[in-house]
Design goal:
The protein has 178 residues and is an alpha/beta fold. The chain is built from 6 helices and 5 strands, in the order αβαβαβααβαβ. Strands 1-2-3-4-5 form a 5-stranded parallel β-sheet. α6 links the parallel β4 and β5. The radius of gyration is 18 Å and the shape is globular. The two termini are 15 Å apart.
Length: 178
């Protein structure tokens, strides 16, 4: 998926393979059926761009979890997404499914770096962050990566300071080494 990523990921899955994966995941969750129902304090959809799933697939996974576990009233349901997938439709449907925390992979705000790694522009990232800051989901997390090409050593702290100042809905920032 990402030119800089060394994880074993694949992008050539068709809708049938994704559907089969979601079915398998739900069946795996159901293997816990019959045991004492445990309470869930958090659910984390992450690591592989779950925002590419359809609303029906996300709902199926959450409904399956609700069959097997007790969702605590203040459960945190985090959903990882790329900035490209942040849209009015997605935010509306995700929030209707109890998703109350968005984690998005900014990676960098350096224009050359963003271009090199195939990401949207800095201007578009700020547009998406502004969009998020006016949405009821007010628990936002961002990820940055250090060690990407063209990024200057001082940029990360400057970018983080700017983002925290401008977007109060940002509650968490992670920084990963490439």
């Amino acid at each position: 998926r990402c030119s800089y990523c060394r994880f074993a990921t694949f992008t050539n899955f068709d809708d049938l393979k994704i559907s089969l994966y979601v079915d398998f995941l739900c069946e795996s969750i159901k293997l816990r059926t019959g045991l004492e129902k445990l309470s869930l304090q958090s659910v984390y959809f992450g690591w592989w761009t779950p925002s590419t799933l359809s609303i029906f697939q996300i709902k199926k996974i959450l409904d399956t979890l609700k069959e097997v576990y007790i969702f605590l009233p203040d459960i945190e349901i985090t959903f990882e997404t790329t900035p490209q997938n942040i849209s009015l439709w997605n935010l509306k449907t995700w929030s209707e499914l109890w998703i109350n925390r968005i984690s998005t992979w900014i990676q960098s705000l350096n224009p050359q770096t963003l271009n090199e790694i195939g990401r949207i522009t800095k201007k578009e990232i700020f547009e998406k962050l502004s969009f998020l800051s006016h949405w009821p989901i007010d628990n936002i997390a961002l990820d940055f990566i250090i060690g990407l090409p063209y990024t200057k050593p001082w940029e990360l702290s400057q970018n983080i300071s700017h983002i925290i100042e401008k977007y109060p809905s940002i509650k968490h920032i992670s920084v990963y080494m490439l």
